[in-house]
Amino acid sequence: MVEQILHSISQFYPEIIIVLTLCAIIIGDLFAKGNSNSAGLIMLDGLILAGIATLFQIGTNEAVFHEVLAVDPFAVFLKILVILAAVFVVLFSMNSSELKEYQSRTGEFYMLLSGMVLGMLLMVGATNLLLMYLVFEITSISSYVLVGFTKKSRRSSESSMKYIIFGAVSSGIMLYGLSLLIGVTGATDIFAVNAALNAGISQPVIFNLSVAMILVGLGFKIAVVPFHFWAPDIYEGATFSIAAILAVASKIAALGLLVRLFTVSFIDIGTMSESGVWQTIFTDDVPWDIVIGIMAALAMIVGNLTALMQDNIKRMLAYSSIAHAGYILMGVVIFSEQGVSSILVYTFIYLFMNLGAFYTAMLFSDSFHTESIEEYKGLGHRAPMEGIAMTIFLVSLTGLPPTGGFIAKLYIFGAAVSAGWIWLVAIAGITTVISLYYYIRVVRNMFLYNPDEGASRAKFNIRSKVMLGVLLVPTLLLGVYFTPLVEFAKQSIVIFGLK
């Protein structure tokens, strides 16, 4: 028993480091001066150490703490993405004018952000239904408070209240769905759930109801249609850094939980089709792969069409992230190794291009005091480097070569075609063309209009330029040299209990 606990702890170092970081932030904030960035620096150091500890887990494939948490290549890949996104968000926050008015409370901000990161790290490896819900709530509760952190802003407070209401309802539905699944299968461990389903269940209606309720909770976190209504308002009311982590890291962690739950619990990997597609063990009543495919299609259609009408850059990026959730879900409906690896490739590239778009929008907001796309007219002339960077990020989000976004869509579209989801790929292709309009609208406003007479060029500090460079390089490099990423993704589809 003691040996097992000690061994489990040895595979739990990244999460332990984040917990210690959270405690260090609380203690450090007691002694820090009001305008100090010490809390941010403490969290940054903690994230770097957690990242190093995660890298040492590469190649591990086992479950710890009595098999409630998996440390496998799939979890490690996603933990790297979560930590990487958190590092960027901390740097964004330390350079954000939105938080300057709240310098005396930065300790609370980074403490909550640490709690959110802890929840996301556990989400991608949870193999027990009860733990899945617990870490889901850890992530959600921290994010509720962070959205309303700038409490002097009425827009922020309103967004936080909406987020809490939507989140509480979806979490409650998900919890009820999990309880039904436990009742039907008599198990909380997802491997035992799989065994029970393979043996046959006598209550298929309740089982299908439980799956639907679980999809409600996870669909809310991923912000996929029809559970997307919260995203635009919440992104608009939150600071740019929090909107960015909700759009990237939170989405990635929820996708990891969804893929693990569906792959381990509902797939019979003993029977494979010639195309390498896993066979589901769902009851014949509801074809859940088609249901998820329809959700993906609706996310692409609604996200892109609604983004056309947005003037606020945050709302536009919110609907863009809804559309991208649809593209990523294409990899889920495939139920194959190729589908999972394409999800990993997509999320890795999505991290850089989406964070880059949010960061550039934050710089424009801080310098020009606007979030209106209409007021972006001429900004490309006043901030050439930042305007070019925003153009590259938006071109990548569209999925055009030679950016990483093209490779991301190429792989996930290719996987869907190989699995026979032609109609879904057709919708994805059409909506990609639609997305070009609202992305290029931003570029048009920046460069095809002259700035107001007498408007001076904006000056950004060296930290901002370095940050843009760090986000730009992978976005461009992965468009021409992507083999290492693809190989890493293929090696990371190994999920504990399946291989």
How would you describe the overall organization of this protein?
The chain has 499 residues and is mainly alpha-helical. The chain has one domain. 72% of the residues lie in helices and 3% in strands. The protein has a two-stranded antiparallel ribbon with strand order 1-2. It has a two-stranded antiparallel sheet with strand order 3-4. Helix 9 runs antiparallel to helix 11 and helix 11 runs antiparallel to helix 14. The radius of gyration is 22 Å and the shape is globular. The mean pLDDT is 85.
TL;DR?
The chain is mainly alpha-helical and 499 residues long. The protein contains 20 helices and four strands. Strands 1-2 form a two-stranded antiparallel ribbon.
Primary descriptors:
499 residues, mainly alpha, two-stranded antiparallel ribbon, single chain, two-stranded antiparallel sheet
Question: How are the SSEs placed, and which strands pair?
Answer:
Layout (H helix, E strand, L loop, with lengths): L1 H9 L2 H19 L6 H18 L6 E3 L4 E3 L1 H22 L11 H18 L5 H19 L6 H32 L4 H10 L4 H19 L7 H8 L2 H27 E6 L5 E3 L7 H20 L5 H22 L2 H32 L10 H4 L1 H15 L5 H15 L3 H26 L14 H16 L5 H9 L8
Antiparallel strand pairs: 1-2, 3-4
Helix pairs in contact: 2-3, 2-5, 3-4, 3-5, 4-5, 4-11, 4-14, 5-6, 5-11, 6-7, 6-11, 7-9, 7-10, 8-11, 9-11, 10-13, 11-13, 11-14, 12-13, 12-18, 13-14, 13-17, 13-18, 14-16, 14-17, 14-19, 14-20, 16-18, 16-19
Q: Secondary-structure element sequence?
A: HHHEEHHHHHHHHEEHHHHHHHHH
Q: Over all CA atoms, what is the radius of gyration?
A: 22 Å
Into how many domains do the coordinates divide?
A: 1
Shape: globular
